[in-house]
Amino acid sequence: MQNVLSILFCLSLFYLAVTPRVKAYVAVLRFQGILLTILLMLPFIEQFSIFAVILPATLFIIKVIVIPRYINKIILELDIKRTIEPTIQQFNFLLLVIFSFIIIFLAASILSQSTEIEIIPFASGFAAVAVGIFIIIFRKKLIIHVAGFLVLENGIFLFGTAVASELPIMIEIGVLLDVFVVVFLMGIALNRISSTFEGFDVTILRRLKD
Amino acid sequence: MDLLFYSLLLQLSSIAAIAFFTENKKASAAAHLLLAAGLITGFITTLTAVLTSNFILKDMNVFGISTSLFRFDALGLYFLCIIQLVAIPTTIYSYSYLKHYIEKGKSVKSNLVFYAVLLTSTQMVVVSNHAILFLICWEVMSTSAYLGMIFEKEKKDVQTGAFYYLVMSHAVVFLLYVFFFFLHNQTNSWLFSNFHLSPDAGKLFIILYALGLIAFGMKAGFMPFHFWLPRAHPIAPTVFSAFLSGIIIKMGIYGILRTFQFLNPTPEWLGWLVLSVSMISAIYGVWYALAQHDIKRLLAYHSVENIGIIGIGIGVGFIGSAYHSVPIQVLGFGGALLHTLNHAVFKSLLFVGSGVIYQNLGTRNIELMGGLVHYGKYFVVLFLIGSIAISGIPPFNGFISEFIIYNSFFTTAKELKNYYPLLMLISAVGLAFVGGLAVACFTKINSIMFLGKERKEVKHFNISFYEYLSLGIFALLCVAIGFYPQPFIVIVNKVLTEGFIPAASSFSLLNINWYLLSIIFISASVGIILIFLWKRSIQKKYGRRISSAWGCGYEGLNPRMQYTASSYADELNEISKTALVYHKKVDKQKEIFPLKGKFESHSEDLADNKILLPAFRNFSSFVSRIRFLSYTDIRYYIAFILIIITIYSLIAFLWK
Prior knowledge:
The complex is a heterodimer. By secondary structure, chain A is mostly helical. Chain A contains 7 helices and no strands. The mean pLDDT of chain B is 86.
């Protein structure tokens, strides 16, 4: 089951790599949030406890409801264009993502020989981190940067479930809170920038140079 | 010994007093009163502890709690004594110094807080036994000194000078961290009382010595690392420069002596290294001083000289330690310890004196002073006492410690035979040379500043009671140590025998007949006074002819015809022109009746201007070359991060 969910997660990453629409990014984020929630619930199906529900519940509220809504609200309020403005061709980007997937899965299989990890969740988490960074590097739009950070964070989450013994749940909660705050601040920053500059490209931020 | 901590609390309570009074004047009075009271109690406690050998080496009770954070051993208490002794008159002077600023309407509260923190943290440094506590106190001491230094922060040279100091103290603290971590690693303890390593430790022993000597030597201002002294001292408020020169640089000496305590016996070559570095510091320190025009800068270079003299004593002590010879160690370290006290006293006296002059004339340039003897007769006498003492002329205190160091040379020559007599003779000549140059330097400033006619109009020259009191205490100490060294020698001897030098009881500093010295000094002084009285009576009988100073028989003398400080020192500066980076610019007129001429001379510091600054300039130009990587777009940075992470993971993969 865990592997199935992880593979679905990877597919969502591929979709991110080809879609040119901002809305699709938000939808993918929502989808990934649901996947992660189910993934976290899995171990607790057999033995139910109240505490075990807290993390999936917060995850669901923040990742599936609050953040996507917030991003949608920013898009509507600031009237952001609906395309993502890439800096390289979508096809090249897809190639890059596939290439990194291959390397990461190979690396994970080599790693699994020496340490005990579950290859597929581990590698897909890793891949999500890579894709998140790629999104940040190769997209101009600030709101897409926010999405990139969130994908990156999802990757860390998945990564965490794969090496649960080494990464305690408290840290995951901490990371969750961190990213939430980052998104929040970015939203505020976007609002501010919109009143100063026209447009939401990072290229414009060059003007902020001291 | 709880009383000592109460005295520290009393000093700290001055901060509360500063916060309590809103008015600057009242706050200053209350704070100085509390500080002085705390220091006096502390000094009495420390002195009684030293005199009654009441040392606590292990697990002491502080307010009923048993702790090993502090230790009252002989060396620490000796330095504590020096700190408190010097801090009392400095605090008295500080009151009258800050009064000038209060009258000008400048807020002095922050400065006072930093002064109080500086005093207490410095006292804590010498009694702490735990390495981390030591480092914390050390850092608080350095930082509060920096904050006090930037009192007149709107001036450009204040910013630069203070920055030099800040950089230096950070470098020192960094080295000290490494030093103490190594020691902790070797001994598994953080306590000074447990740190001990013998030369069997091999390379680590040398590394530790290098770290300790460079770090503490930088603080003390030995020659290659002296660059911060002439920059930081002139710009600091006089109170701080007096304390900096009197006490803070002595903390470097304290550190070096502690390093010796941790790591002994020393190898012989290290003794020679310290001796030669100190000799160079002493000679060039005084030579640079001779070329200065700024009185505080000049005094700062004299600090380098005197640190060099202390270092010579330590170097001789190291050589003694290498040969396990008790007399050499006792004389070498004894001379160093006593000179530490002496330098703290007379250098503070001179700095306070220069502060008084600066307050009244508004300039630190010696070339613009002159004829001050007509305004403050007693002040000139007090300043002269400090000048004689620092030059090492009998009968004042500078001579006593240098006498011990000379003695250590001769004892080394006698004990070790072989080629030592020749080397020690060279060292003795070197030290004598230093004394000679110091005399030249102080005759220069005393004659130019005090004698002759005023070069710049002196509007007022007032010296307040507190200034006289402060100067008077310092001068009294100079005279007392010079004329009656016995009790001070007893204390120094106690420090040496109580755990500093192993098996030190076989030789003592008291083997020298100090009473004889006292008798000679007193009789000589009485003789001089008698001759002076005789001269007075003759003058009364036959009258006295008075003509202008530097007049050489010429009648229509004006201030511009007087001998200047640079011309006084020129002959000596010419000798070592390259090392001093001594420039002269003479603008000669070719006509038969020249109208205007121009002369300029100044000296730059070799280590500062030819080594340090170019090195930094090269480094910064090198760093600016990799600025092509600096983009304004955040995406590039994330890409860089990704690349670096990939490289690291590849390395991790391949590294098996």
